[in-house]
Design brief:
Blueprint (H helix, E strand, L loop, with lengths): L10 E9 L4 E8 L5 E7 L6 E3 L5 E2 L3 H11 L7 H17 L4 E3 H15 L1 H11 L5 H22 L14
Parallel strand pairs: 4-6
Antiparallel strand pairs: 1-2, 2-3, 4-5
């Protein structure tokens, strides 16, 4: 690190501390040449992949677009801001962990729909209606029926059988 006073490369770290909740390292430095002290900050640079839209255009990742879509789906629903922030972080993490330099917007939409289904079913249907471009009421009804059927499947698999595998009750 160059000294801002004399532009010498001969500097040393006096003190290092975490700041911003552990996302930044704050380093106090001193120049060996002129003795000037200064502070530097080290942050992880996270590069989000580019988004490939359905028409083939490529855009830079915009967290604001994702946030607006999720907030609009959750409008007037009993979901707290902490849950929304957690949802956003989870989706961004899933996109980053894919390891791809470019990601299809449809993949992001799927991540959002799966996450919304777990948080709030009404928000899920709202988001799905825009994401899948529902054209009429029957498309809404079909999606609600799919959601209801999927929910019934989960309930059936979570219940334990009271009968043994042979179908009869054992007497002790």
């Amino acid at each position: 690190m160059r000294c801002p006073s004399c532009i010498s490369d001969a500097t040393r770290v006096i003190d290092s501390r975490l700041s911003d909740g552990g996302d930044t390292v704050r380093r106090r430095r001193a120049c060996k040449h002129c003795g000037h002290r200064f502070t530097t900050f080290e942050r992880l640079e996270v590069e989000q992949p580019r988004v490939i839209k359905s028409d083939g255009r490529r855009e830079a990742w915009e967290e604001g677009k994702l946030r607006r879509g999720i907030i609009r789906a959750l409008e007037k629903r009993p979901v707290g801001q902490d849950q929304i922030e957690s949802l956003l972080l989870t989706i961004e993490k899933l996109v980053r962990l894919s390891g791809d330099r470019e990601v299809q917007s449809s993949s992001i939409g799927q991540f959002v729909m799966e996450s919304l289904r777990e948080i709030d079913e009404v928000a899920y249907v709202r988001y799905a209606s825009v994401y899948r471009s529902f054209q009429d009421v029957s498309a809404f009804a079909d999606e609600v029926e799919r959601l209801r059927h999927a929910k019934d499947q989960v309930i059936d698999t979570d219940q334990l059988s009271l009968l043994s595998s042979g179908g009869s009750v054992e007497k002790t």
